[in-house]
Write a structure and sequence with these properties.
229 residues, alpha+beta, Arc Repressor Mutant, subunit A, three-stranded antiparallel beta sheet, 10 helices
């Protein structure tokens, strides 16, 4: 049983990847229940309590800020998920299929808005609210902006790397913290790994084998979408 953050990290390291948010989506999740189901679960792990050791909502940022071997982003079914350093190169190989960002944009698989966002993030780590400001997006752009942010995460061009406070003109922090993004290459280089150029088919097969090991009842249709994005 997962009883705290250390247990979670240990289990995740052994499994290699997991859905976030307390829903396995027919694949696998280390924490398989969400806040609506937790009253029926006999565990100290409870969602949205604010207790760092036992609140899975806190763990998504803790893995980014305290560890160098776990990535967290919206990478599975356009929802959140965790991937360890060992397994990330396999997903990267499948999702990127050897393409650079420029090549993906040229062949039409990346939107114009995603391109504008990526150009900002490729210059370094940038907070969510700053990306909107630097790109000059208006409120009317919000829905397309958020779709593009997810699109870039699903394609593994960008990933979350932490959080930062919003500040007013006097430099004072206010409101909720904002998620910070960077390119996946920068994220892993800062953690001591240059992403290798692996074969996409071999990578796909390896991930699929691990999914079946974790969940023998996983359906092929969901496995396909989980791996390819």
């Amino acid at each position: 049983m997962i009883r705290n953050f250390a247990d979670f990290c240990k289990e995740l390291s052994e499994c290699g990847f997991s859905m976030g948010g307390g829903n396995a989506k027919g694949i696998y999740a280390v924490i398989s229940y969400d806040w609506k189901e937790q009253e029926y679960i006999d565990s100290p792990v409870k969602w949205h309590t604010g207790v760092p050791e036992t609140d899975p909502w806190e763990w998504r940022m803790r893995v980014l800020e305290e560890r160098n071997d776990i990535a967290y982003a919206k990478v599975f079914f356009k929802k959140s998920g965790f991937i360890t350093k060992e397994w990330y190169p396999y997903f990267y190989a499948v999702r990127r299929n050897g393409e650079t960002f420029g090549e993906a944009y040229e062949n039409g698989s990346i939107s114009q808005m995603a391109k504008r966002i990526y150009e900002i993030i490729s210059g370094g780590e940038v907070a969510f609210h700053e990306i909107k400001r630097l790109c000059g997006f208006s409120r009317e752009d919000n829905a397309r902006f958020e779709r593009a942010i997810v699109e870039l995460q699903m394609r593994m061009f960008i990933t979350m790397c932490g959080r930062a406070p919003k500040r007013n003109k006097f430099g004072e922090a206010y409101g909720w913290n904002s998620t910070v993004f960077t390119t996946v290459e920068n994220f892993w280089e800062n953690r001591g790994m240059i992403l290798p150029n692996l074969d996409p088919k071999v990578s796909y097969d390896k991930i699929r084998e691990q999914i079946i090991r974790l969940n023998p009842e996983a359906e092929q249709k969901k496995i396909e979408k989980f791996i390819r994005g």
